[in-house]
Amino acid sequence: MWKCIVLALGAIAVAANGAEKWLQVELVDQGPVRGRLDPDGGLYRFYNIPYATAPTGRDKFKAPLPAPKWTEPFDAKDRNIRCPQGNVFEPEDCLVANVYVPDTTDKNLPVVVSIHGGAYQIGYGTNRVYRNFVRDNKLIMVTFNYRLAVHGFLCLGTEDVPGNAGLKDQVAALRWVNKNIANFGGNPQDVTLSACSAGGGSADMLTLSSITKGLFQRAIIGSGVSTGAVGVQIDPIENAKTYAKLLNFNDVDNMESLEEFYRTASFETLTSQSQHITNNEDVAILFSPCVEKDVGQERVITDAPMTVIKTGNYTKIPLLYGFANMEGLMRLPFYSEWKDKMNEKFSDFLPAELHFESETVKEEVAQQVKQFYFGDKPVGDETILTYIDFFTDVLFGYPMLSQLSARVESLGDTIYLYEYEFVEEKTPSILDTNVKGSGHCDQTRVIGDQLNASPEFTEMANIVRQYFVNFIKTGNPTPPGSGFGTWTPANAKRTPHMLLGNVRQLREDILTTEDGKDRGAFWDGIYAKYYRGPVLIAADPVPGGTVSLAISKCVLFIVLLITLMFNM
User: Fold this and answer.
1) What is the CATH number of the domain that holds 316?
2) What amino acid positions are annotated as catalytic residues?
3) Which of 85, 370, 387, 531 is such that its CA lies 20 to 30 A from the CA of 77?
4) Helix 255-264 crosses helix 545-566 at what angle (to 10 degrees)?
5) For 81-112, how does the pLDDT look when each residue is reduced to its tens digit (9 = 90+)?
6) Which helix (H) or strand (E) holds 340?
7) Rounded to two decimals, what is the model's pTM?
8) pLDDT in tens, 244-265
9) Domain for residue 547, yes or no?
10) Residue 123 is part of which domain span?
């Protein structure tokens, strides 16, 4: 039996065949696609729909190509498609989206587009489940894959390797949503980005891009922003050279040869040293978004993110910013190895976006930072909580707060700020302390489905989730009539913020030491003196490398010789 329902621009057909029920949607410029009713009811799931085509071979670093077309209904079942990552082979043509649609005939539903995290190196669109979030709140959720690591973020500033392939995939996904979501019952003018970690950094970067204007109306950004060495490559050419050397390619100063190496290298070669891309002492990530050189192609980011913010060259939208109170827990696996290194040469752990005129100055600043955090005590078991605080600040805390201040000062952005510190009774204490804390992106658990959730988590999650849903639907986590009181947007001094934990309350101070010192203000002083933005790729033509340089010198010599001859 068939029953046809016309929704917006596309026809949606619902069919029942025994225990299976599915929904058919017509995609613009592609063809029909079928999704299945969730076994528990309440929503339809569409998996692995191609939203673009990843270029391959020598063109693998270029912008995505148009999505494929078909005439027969595309069966949107879960094929477990992921983009190449780590040392596990995955298909290169991996640009697929997943759409979760509530079982309703309502139109113009709010849309949430979630960008997965994973340090720009790992992850995929279906790594979290959002069935209850969609079912309970009558909104549409879209997730997707994008190219990762060297495949997604190698940046040479050439026509064939312009950079930010992964970000351009994200833009393609947002354009696909804008074109097609009405046919699923969603409102293309009511889209919220939601992301954490590298997803948060990506979402933040997209809010600063001129090519994304109108593709989303608000953003929830957790534990990651576009500034700092985690969010943007400080020197993409040097990063490309560094990684090439790890792959045993040494002709790195010849840019033509370097580009050819990357374009022709196999998947196995390019991923063989992926363990060196992240977890660097200076918090830098080798392959992350970059500031793109103008090579005559569409660019996502044309200038340093902080420059874009301070010049006001972006579209202002409501933002929900936040991070966990112990983001630095993600550096505990390196504690045994790093504590002695930090005592011997703390300067190696200063953020990569800081630049010093000499090693002497760098060492002086390093001692200043070490003294501020650790005092006269060594980095060790007695100061393990301070170790966590330090990495909380340099990884995500300070970059997010400094960017918040810059946005408010520039365009008066409306930014709701939170610090997430919820812990359960079963949460283990940190090493030999009695202290517990929330780690990197723990706040995302409140949106995704949780198996065997404790009553205390469920109670807290329901409240925090409602803040998020309110923001998604209104741009305000506590709109009039919500029953939550008022969550005031943060000012340029980074106050107030909402504490989201076992208690929920507005607070003034954020990132403070045990004795009340302002960690953010401390870093303000350091960054005011030593911050450098990303190195912009030289405007001179890259192809040819040292050969081009030799030719240029030869041409210059000939010009000078002719000039001398005519003036004799």
Assistant:
1) 3.40.50.1820
2) 197
3) 85
4) 150
5) 999 998 777 778 899 999 999 999 999 999 99
6) helix 335-344
7) 0.91
8) 999 999 999 999 999 999 999 9
9) no
10) 23-530
